Amino acid sequence: MDFKSMRIVSIDDNENNLFLIESICTDMELQVKSFSEPLEALMYVLQNQIDMILIDYMMPNLNGLEFIEEYRKKIKNVPIIMITAAGDDENIHKKAFELGANDFLSKPVNSVIFKARVINLLTNYQNQILLEDRAKLLEKEVEKATQNLLKREHETLTILGKTAEYKDPETASHVARVAYYSKLLAKGYGLSEKEQDILFYAAPFHDLGKIGIEDKILLKPAKLTPEEFKTMKSHPKIGYEILKNSQSEYLQAGAIIALTHHEKVNGSGYPNGLKDDDIHIFGRIVAIADVFDALTSFRPYKQAWSFEDAVKYLQEKSGKEFDTKLVEIFINNLDEVAIIYNSFKDE
């Protein structure tokens, strides 16, 4: 391995010892910076990137053990070799290991042993850095691949979300507006960014079940008969049955939305007559988004309501058909609602 770019710090209050270490390091083509004052050295190694510390034990102001203890509070992985006198107590070695020293050398320093131990520790340190770099690179690659998969899933969801349009007179613009209205309400309600994202991509599936409704009913340009309306009311369960067994969290949410977006907080909705919080929050949100957009959109059997009249309808039905808090959030964000309303016009 090439150690030429690696930075070594040598600390000893004896100039002769420092000179000896410098000579051996120079012979090994290592970059070495020497300090005779341990406090100055500590400040340097804490503020600069280095690759190894060689430190004497017995020094004034701050001994080797105290130095290692302070340094290891901040830096855990840089190798440290402590240099001790031949007769030093073995307890010093034990304490140094406990504090974070990696190896020892005895004075007088033997250049052969010095080179072997320094090369061994630097090799291990370089390998550790390489492994960490590879792990970071792998993590970035995994994240990139995950984002690509998520992007493709979003694209697939967008395409699938348009499925019902080919039978339903409702347009792609309706699907887009419902998704954006829903995300706006979810954010105002305090749902997490993840939940907002799921709702945004799942909301377009609210009327998926209409693909199971006969064209003569679905496309009828007049008011439905009671029998026809009964058939129409089966579309939430059809949509739910189509999506319920999916492993995708987006399609699972779509199943919930399909089943619950026609429920009303007073229990008068369908298909299950649920009330209040028994209706999933996704269903309560999409109910408002869907009705508001349906009211303000032209259909073969009705004219579009004005923006203001549709808002008044939500206020009138608050606490009866729609969640009171969600209606309040919608009203408090009418500027953003208007932007969505004007950004996706029916063709």
TrEMBL record:
SMART domains the record matches: HDc, REC
SUPFAM superfamilies: CheY-like, HD-domain/PDEase-like
Keyword Hydrolase among record annotations: yes
GO molecular function (one): cyclic-nucleotide phosphodiesterase activity
Domain of life: Bacteria
Keyword Hydrolase (UniProt): yes
Record-linked InterPro entries: CheY-like_superfamily, Cyclic_di-GMP/3'3'-cGAMP_PDE, HD/PDEase_dom, HD_GYP_dom, Sig_transdc_resp-reg_receiver
GO BP term (any one): phosphorelay signal transduction system
Keywords from the UniProt entry: Hydrolase
Entries under Pfam families matching the protein: HD_5, Response_reg
The protein, known as: Two-component system response regulator
